Amino acid sequence: MNRSTRLGLASIAVGVLVLGLKYIGYLLTGSVALYSDALESIINVATALITVVAVAVSAIPADANHPYGHNKAEYLSAVLESTLIVIAALAILREAYMGFLHPRPLAAPALGIAFNLGATAINAAWGAILVRYGRRWHSPALVADGRHLWTDVVSSLGVAAGVALAALSGWQRLDALIAALVAVHILWSGWILMRDSIGGLMDRALPDETIAGLRRLIQETGDGALQAYDLRSRRAGARVFIEFNLVVPGAMPVAQAHAICDRLEAALHAYIDGSTVLIHLEPEGEAVAAPEVRIA
């Protein structure tokens, strides 16, 4: 079991604990907003399960049928998580609508809010951990799960505020209105997560600043070559793929050209840990008029 899988399993335990605390808060108050918040936590547990499966699949080594590995499974899980977020938001909107039509008095709001805020604190701490280690380990699934928890934190704070205001003002419909506003926020967060995940599935290039760093590194360490062009890159989960054409003098011995490629590969591996580099050698006659990187 790798480290990402262990973190994902811990997320399931955290999700169950938070779900229990939020549901207790709903039982104490009868608040439609707290019920909606507990409903969203069910989605948190489901997405944690999805994350564990995705991280486990992405860790499977490359094979004959998947020579580039299984890393994109994490992007698929992130798309599924964003879909579940949207479903949760729609369910919350429905509960908010019913609560607005048929408002109910709140019982023991202070105690219910206390349970909800306790669960929210746990979610905030765990979400920060997931995002931190997900970025460090280049795991889109862990980052997506952590961001999802942060959307839950924001919505839970909004729910707690709505319940408190409804209890203090006596206007019970405010409970439902706050829940509806939070649902709209969750819908937006789900769309952002889905957009980023689809970008990974579509082999989106690395950020512009990273590409600029790659070009600078090729220029600095490609002594002996003439130029480089057609630089392409993509990320698949924790792996990064880099490829480009390298033009060398036509009379250069193969061994010398290979040594230049080895030097470039070592530098690029050091710049982006876990990267896979493919360099296509071409003779001087293939040089282009406006190369991406001019070395000599």
From TrEMBL:
Residues 206-284 form the Cation efflux protein cytoplasmic domain. One of its GO terms (molecular function) is cadmium ion transmembrane transporter activity. InterPro entries: Cation_efflux (IPR002524), Cation_efflux_CTD (IPR027470), Cation_efflux_CTD_sf (IPR036837), Cation_efflux_TM (IPR058533), Cation_efflux_TMD_sf (IPR027469), CDF_Transporter (IPR050291). It is found in: Membrane. Keywords: Membrane, Transmembrane, Transmembrane helix, Transport. Residues 9-202 form the Cation efflux protein transmembrane domain. One of its GO terms (cellular component) is plasma membrane. The chain crosses the membrane at residues 7-29, 41-62, 74-94, 106-129, 149-170, 176-194. Its main location: membrane. It is a multi-pass membrane protein. It holds the Pfam family Cation_efflux. GO terms for biological process: intracellular zinc ion homeostasis. It comes from the Bacteria. Belongs to the cation diffusion facilitator (CDF) transporter (TC 2.A.4) family. This is Ferrous-iron efflux pump FieF. It comes from Pigmentiphaga humi. The gene is fieF.
